[in-house]
Every structure is written in C-alpha cells, then in structure tokens.
Design a protein that fits this description.
Blueprint: H1 4-11, H2 24-35, H3 38-41, H4 44-55, H5 59-87, H6 89-108, H7 115-129, H8 132-142, H9 149-173, H10 179-200, H11 205-212, E1 217-218, H12 231-239, E2 245-246, H13 252-259, H14 261-284, H15 292-301, H16 303-317, H17 319-338, H18 343-367, H19 370-396, H20 398-401, H21 403-406, H22 412-416
Antiparallel strand pairs: 1-2
Helix pairs in contact: 2-8, 2-9, 2-10, 4-10, 5-6, 5-7, 5-8, 5-19, 6-7, 6-8, 6-10, 8-19, 9-15, 9-16, 13-19, 14-17, 14-18, 14-19, 16-17, 16-18, 17-18
Length: about 425
C-alpha cells in the first residue's frame, strides 16, 4: 500500500530550476490560507463597534480580547511553524486555519452575557492561527520553481491585501444585519480557505525531500591520547566493528538556532525594523478619508504598488540592493513625518515599507532550508509582532519622547531621526 506521503510526492510534479512558471491555482489556494487569519486579526477594526452597540459589553472587554489575542499569537507562531517543519505544511495549514474559523463561529454564538466566551474565542483563535501565515507562505514558495519565486512573493503579498478588502466588503454588505451574521460570514472565510487548500494543494515537495533524507551521522568518538590506541578497544573493534551512531534529532527550533544562527539574528532585527516602520507610518499617515470603511480600504490598497515595484526592481538589481533602497526611502519618510510633513509623505513611506516587506519575505525564503524554513518565518514574525505592538505608542508619543524633549539643544532633524 502506498503511504499518504508517497501519494503526495507522486502527485506533485517536480519543477525544474529553469522553470519560470508560477503554479497560480495552488498559489492562490495557499494565499487563501495565508490571508485567512485577517478575519480574526484585522476584522475587529471594523466589526467591534457593531458588536459593542448590540451587546452592551464594556469596550475594555474587546480591547482586552485584542491585546490577549496578539500576545497569544506569538507562541502560536513558533509552535505552529515548528509543527509545520516536523509534520508538514499541508496538515498544519489546514488545522490552524480550520481552528481559526471555528473560534470565530463560536464567538459569534456567544450570548448577550457571554463576553467572557467571546474574549476566550478570540484569544484561542490568535494562538491557533499564529502559525498559519508562516506555514502557508513556506508552502507556497516550496511549490514554486526557484526562478519564479520573486513573482510568487509579489502575488502572495498582493493577494493578502484581498483579505482586508473582503472583510470591508462584507462589513458593508451586512450593515443592516446582526453582528452575528457578519461574524459568521467572517468565520466562513478561513473555513472555506482551509477546505480548498486541503483538496487542491499537495504537500511541499521540498519538505518531503528533506524528510526522506537520511538522518545526520555522528563521527566515531576517539578516546585516550591522540596517536595511541587502547589495545583492548582495538581488539574489541576488530571483533565487532562499530556502526555509525546517529546524531540525536533536534527540534526545528533548536536546529534553527544552532545551525542557522548567523542569518537568523540579522533577519530578526530586520523584521522588527520593517514592521515598526510599516505600522508607525500607517499610524502617522493619518486618515485618507473621513469614512471609516473607505479609509480602511485606501490604507490597505496603498501597499499594492509597493509590492509590485519591489518585485520588478528585484528582477533588475537583486533582493538586497532593493531592500536597502526602500529602507532608506522609508527612513527619510519617517523623519519627514516626524517633522510634520504632509500626509502624502506618510503614504509614500508606507509604499516603501510594503516594498521592504516584499524583500524581507524573499530574503527569509532564500536564507533557510526547507527543514527549518517555516520555523524561521515563525520566529521572525514574533519579532515583527513585538515591534508592531510598540509602533503606535511610539508614533503617538514621539513629540513627548523625542530627544528634543530631553536635549533641547539637539537640532530638530536629529531629534526626528
């Protein structure tokens, strides 16, 4: 009987390194899983006002729910992505996305006095879905030939924007309905995405190849003074030659740290800087429209040109030079925003930070082998989450916390930097 893993391997055509075709159907299914957690993470920006108006719950309850969900998603990212490197992208992506949808659906059924249940489902959903995005992105890249991965990265990031746009469209479509109807529709998003990916996307061929590789061998140990053989040991070896001893298997997280620390540490710092810049500029850019939903849509659409520009320039100059270019432009934008530049400067900076995200995803894909790639994404996303947490307060209090407040003699441009 053929094992399930073998069936997955047989159903996945081997892609040549010279192949430049993007597997659009599979990539789209992975993108659905990749963006599905936005139904839990992004939707509260629009939906919570309706929930509070209908239930009479204390606003602090939903604020607490969002904060705890954010905290829970950090260990969820590490645990889920490590599981993807052990068990496979396909099962982890399916079950975490399914769990996200179930948590949203159960929260939608919370009674009027069930604020605690609603909060608990949001927190559990954050923990369960924390590893979904690292797993889905790794899955999509490993299904794509190497020469097509720049386009695939651009496509995944652009398709991610569809998540918030669908959430906004559903919010408008259900504006005259109960908040529970809106929540159940949001739950359907990850549930459908999980089912589509499960049916249409095979396991990652790179993961299967890494799992099929022979385990690492440990060198035979030598005892005593170098150059001198113990006659008893030599005689025993002559009678019964020793077999190579297998090295103990490390967890993906331990292996990532011990074997790939050199690229990991700079990337952790880079993810934190990119995320802090992105959300700091998003906060500082202000409103593009007085209408909440339209402003929500416009701020998300502003990222799309950045993804396309970064993808195009990468084909011409490579990943690192484009990353440096967009980082410098984003840094200048941050300085100008701190100096009270017009809102358009903040939007341009957000365009640049979107390009930085495009590059940091590509760099993380390139730097790590399949057996630790999802874990690397998970660890880096935790760094990005922590930076995201601190970005809005820093942007909001920049005037009070700036160096200028502490050292009045410092020139204003230096203080802004």
């Amino acid at each position: 009987m053929t094992a399930p893993a073998d069936r997955d391997a047989d159903s996945t055509p081997a892609a040549s390194d010279d192949d430049e075709r993007v597997p659009w159907a599979r990539l789209s299914a992975c993108a659905g899983v990749y963006t599905a957690p936005t139904a839990l993470v992004v939707a509260p920006a629009l939906a919570d006002v309706r929930v509070l108006a209908a239930t009479g719950w204390a606003p602090g309850a939903l604020t607490l729910a969002s904060g705890l969900m954010f905290v829970a998603s950090a260990p969820g990212a590490v645990v889920g992505s490590s599981a993807a490197d052990r068990l496979g992208r396909r099962p982890v992506a399916f079950w975490t996305t399914l769990g996200c949808g179930i948590c949203i659906a159960v929260g939608a059924a919370a009674p009027r006095q069930g604020a605690l249940l609603y909060v608990a489902m949001r927190v559990i959903g954050g923990a369960v879905s924390g590893g979904t995005a690292p797993t889905a992105f790794s899955w999509a890249m490993e299904l794509t030939p190497h020469k097509a991965r720049t386009r695939a990265t651009t496509a995944m990031n652009v398709l991610w924007v569809l998540g918030p746009l669908l959430i906004a469209a559903w919010h408008v479509a259900t504006r005259s309905a109960s908040w529970r109807v809106e929540a159940l529709g949001l739950a359907a998003f990850p549930l459908v995405a999980a089912a589509v990916a499960r049916v249409s996307v095979p396991e990652s061929p790179e993961f299967l190849a890494a799992r099929a590789a022979p385990p690492p061998q440990r060198e035979s140990e030598v005892y005593g003074i170098v150059g001198h053989l113990d006659p008893d040991v030599a005689a025993a070896d002559a009678v019964a030659p020793t077999e190579p001893v297998e090295a103990p298997l490390r967890s993906p997280l331990a292996r990532l740290w011990h074997e790939h620390r050199r690229p990991l540490v700079p990337l952790i710092l880079s993810w934190a800087c990119v995320s802090a810049s992105y959300y700091g500029l998003a906060y500082s850019a202000g409103a593009l429209s007085k209408r909440v939903v339209l402003n929500f849509v416009l701020l998300n659409l502003a990222d799309v040109p950045g993804y396309f520009a970064a993808g195009y320039l990468t084909k011409l100059a490579g990943t690192e030079p484009v990353m440096v270019l967009f980082s410098c432009l984003a840094g200048v934008s941050l300085v100008l925003v701190a100096l009270k530049a017009p809102a358009g400067v903040g939007i341009f900076g957000k365009f640049c930070t979107a390009g930085m995200f495009q590059q940091i995803y590509a760099m993380t894909t390139e730097r790590f082998p399949a057996e630790v790639r999802a874990t690397a994404f998970g660890v880096c996303r935790v760094a990005a989450m922590l930076a995201t947490f601190f970005a809005p307060p820093l942007a909001r209090n920049s005037a009070q916390l700036s160096l200028r407040a502490l050292l009045p003699s410092v020139p204003k441009p230096v203080s802004a930097l």
